């Protein structure tokens, strides 16, 4: 795993560990002109390389305390960063744009370092626990596979189709060499062995990185 991916991987683990004790504010993504919550935080990779450009100091190295909301947009099959907003006095109901440190003269930025497989819940959540704002459930999902910021494949699923897709990804990934390496890496971080399999399954799109369905 490359250094920036290792950083993002650890952020994900810390999110799961501390989420129940803190309030989580997802990023946003615009698809076909509609804004949705987005629970993948690609800018953390960027700020890992350019910490001087981070708009707010991250107090405890978790995505919960990142102190900003990134707004992405998918346009012409490319993922762009459109805006970065920060809360006024910590109030996430009052957000102001703060893009000067990242954009400079550009109005948007292609997310050229983003690779993998990601999902977006469409519409309002149908099931969500007050203690777990990271993992709501939706009636419909948009799945996209991306290489260097360019989207190469998409799927639209109902919730039942999405669950079957995750099961399919899991069955293909769990017997791979990548799974074995990931499992051993998680053991070394101190995660209880009985929790590792459930964690990987829950985040199987993130960890499998590519769509295994036949085209």
Descriptive report:
By secondary structure, the protein is α+β, with helices and mostly antiparallel strands. 32% of the residues lie in helices and 33% in strands. It is built from seven helices and eleven strands. Strands 1, 2, 3, 4, 5 and 6 form a six-stranded mixed sheet that branches. A three-stranded antiparallel sheet has the order 7-10-11. It has a two-stranded antiparallel ribbon with strand order 8-9. The protein is globular, with a radius of gyration of 17 Å. The two termini are 27 Å apart.
Give me some keywords for this one.
alpha+beta; disordered N terminus; three-stranded antiparallel sheet; globular; 215 residues; 11 strands; six-stranded mixed sheet
SSE string, helices as H and strands as E: HEEHEEEHEEEEEEHHHH
Portion in helices:
25-40%
Largest sheet, in brief, is: 6 strands, mixed
Q: Mean of the pLDDT scores?
A: 84
Q: What form results from the Cα inertia axes?
A: globular
Keywords: Signal
Signal peptide: 1-21
Please render the helix and strand layout as text:
Blueprint: H1 3-18, E1 27-31, E2 34-38, H2 43-49, E3 69-75, E4 78-88, E5 91-97, H3 100-103, E6 109-110, E7 116-122, E8 127-129, E9 132-137, E10 140-147, E11 150-158, H4 159-173, H5 177-188, H6 193-202, H7 204-208
């Amino acid at each position: 795993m490359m250094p920036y991916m290792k950083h993002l991987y650890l952020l994900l683990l810390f999110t799961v560990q501390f989420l129940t004790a803190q309030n989580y504010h997802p990023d946003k993504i615009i698809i076909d002109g509609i804004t949705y919550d987005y629970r993948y935080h690609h800018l953390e990779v960027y700020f890992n390389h350019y910490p001087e450009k981070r708009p707010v100091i991250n107090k405890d190295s978790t995505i919960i305390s990142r102190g900003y909301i990134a707004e992405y947009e998918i346009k012409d099959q490319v993922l762009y960063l459109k805006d970065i907003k920060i809360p006024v006095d910590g109030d996430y109901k009052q957000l102001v744009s703060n893009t000067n440190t990242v954009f400079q003269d550009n109005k948007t930025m292609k997310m050229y370092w983003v690779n993998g497989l990601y999902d977006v819940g469409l519409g309002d959540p149908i099931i969500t626990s007050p203690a777990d704002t990271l993992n709501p459930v939706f009636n419909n999902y948009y799945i996209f596979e991306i290489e260097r910021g360019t989207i190469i494949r998409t799927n639209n699923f109902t919730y039942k189709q999405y669950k079957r897709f995750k099961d399919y990804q899991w069955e293909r990934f769990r017997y791979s060499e990548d799974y074995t390496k990931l499992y051993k890496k998680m053991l070394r971080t101190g995660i209880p062995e009985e929790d590792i399999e459930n964690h990987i399954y829950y985040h199987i799109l993130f960890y499998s990185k590519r769509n295994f369905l036949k085209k």
